[in-house]
Amino acid sequence: MAQTSDKKQKKADILDVAKAARVSASTVSRYFNHPELLKPATRKRIDSAVRRTGYIRNRAAQTIHGIRSGTIGVIVPTLDHAIFAEVVQAFSDTVAEQGFTILLASHGYDQQREYAILRKFLEHRVDGVVLTGLDHDDAVFQLLDSQHIPAVLMWNYAPRSRYPAIGADNALAGRLIAEHVLSLGHTNIACMFPPTGGNDRAQDRRQGVLGALQTAGIDLPEAWSLQTVYSISASKKDASALFSPRNRPTALICGNDILATGALYGAAACGLRVPEDVTIVGIGDFKGSAEIEPAITTVRLPARTIGQEAGRALAHLITQADDASGTSLHCAPQLIIRKSSASPK
User: Fold this and answer.
1) How far apart are CA 134 and CA 146, in angstroms?
2) Tens of pLDDT along 8-57?
3) How many angstroms separate the CA atoms of 18 and 154, rounded?
4) Among 37, 39, 42, 229, which residue has the fewest nearby CB atoms (within 10 Å)?
5) Concatenated DSSP letters of 181-199
6) What are the φ/ψ torsions at residue 299 (nearest 5 degrees)?
């Protein structure tokens, strides 16, 4: 009987929290809706009271009255890749400092699916939205415009974009890695990129690489221009086929470090030494790129910085509604030279 009685006890309300924290109900409301306006000590005291009382506020009632939901929708192409996990984690940590929680979804490089996800997020009354990259269906932008929802484009940078773009110039990243390979004296160069459909990051990197090669007068044979899915096993297989013939390239430029890692295994399977027999480079500087043997020469895309700056930008757009201008920010890529690249023998 006691258990039944306990279950029917009145749920804690905002007044219970205020009493437990020794503050006013309006201060508790401010804690949830505008935590940045409270002193850290006050936030800590209210947080402790919320935990003790088990208080859960009614989001549905609040959003009806125009109060922020405290959530941000984050849409990424995939959750399989470590680089997206790093940027999302940095974003989540940053907005959490302003009292926001993220809702995360992936669209699998399908723009129609992205539109459907965005509609779901807006139905849940998110306070803002983060999209990955610059290239999106017009319907996505029209929906954001019609709802007047704060939005940031994360990962790619463009000085002029429909919404603030916080990220790296991927075309520059491609050019940096190609120019490094060229500076070593390589002329027999192959390229391996992931499919570029619905992936403006891969498109820009590819264009940056090919543009640098073209400027240097390097022709890329069709057989040396590989399209490989984002997979170590697939890149190992394709690299093995590339390196097997006697007439093989002396350098392979990969569109990301995952492909470069598989290519290292492919070279080893063919009995080739890296970089003595073949140079292999990537883009991204993923976790582990410096630890693999040989360590991968790459272009660092500052994922953590991008996530943090995107979080700050969107939190500002949400909390400072009167200052809704927003500016794009370039988190510059950086060439990282390691052991997987050398001059041809």
Assistant:
1) 19
2) 456 788 898 899 999 998 898 888 878 888 999 999 999 899 888 878 77
3) 38
4) 39
5) HHHTT--SEEEEE---TT-
6) -115, 120
Q: For residue 77, what are the β-bridge partners?
A: none
pLDDT digit string (tens) for 111-125?
889 999 999 898 888
The encoded tokens of residue 130 equal 């983060």
Sheet holding 165-168, edge to edge: 101-106, 71-76, 128-132, 151-156, 165-168, 329-330
Amino acid symbol at 249: P
Question: Which amino acid does the sequence have at 289?
Answer: S
Sheet holding 225-227, edge to edge: 225-227, 189-193, 251-254, 279-281
φ/ψ (deg, to 5) at 85: -60, -40
Say how far apart CA 44 and CA 51 lie, in whole Å.
11
Cα end-to-end span (Å), the chain: 85
Q: How far apart are CA 296 and CA 337, in angstroms?
A: 8
CA pair distance 267, 275, nearest whole angstrom = 10
Residues 183 and 216: their CA atoms lie apart, in Å, by 10
Enter the tokens of residue 190: 């192959």
Dihedrals phi, psi of 191, to nearest 5 degrees: -130, 145
Tell the residue number behind the tokens 């909390």, with chain if given: 319
Residues 18 and 28: beta-carbon distance below 8 Å: yes
User: Three-state DSSP class for 82?
Assistant: helix
Under 8 Å CB-to-CB from 183, ≥6 apart: which residues? Answer: none
Residue ranges in the chain assigned as alpha helix (H)? 2-7, 14-21, 25-33, 40-53, 59-64, 82-96, 111-123, 138-147, 170-183, 200-215, 232-243, 257-269, 303-319
Mean pLDDT value across residues 259-279: 97
Distance CA 170, CA 63 (A): 38
Which position has the higher pLDDT, 133 or 287? 133
Residues 12 and 5: beta-carbon distance below 8 Å: no
CB 187 within 8 A of CB 213: no
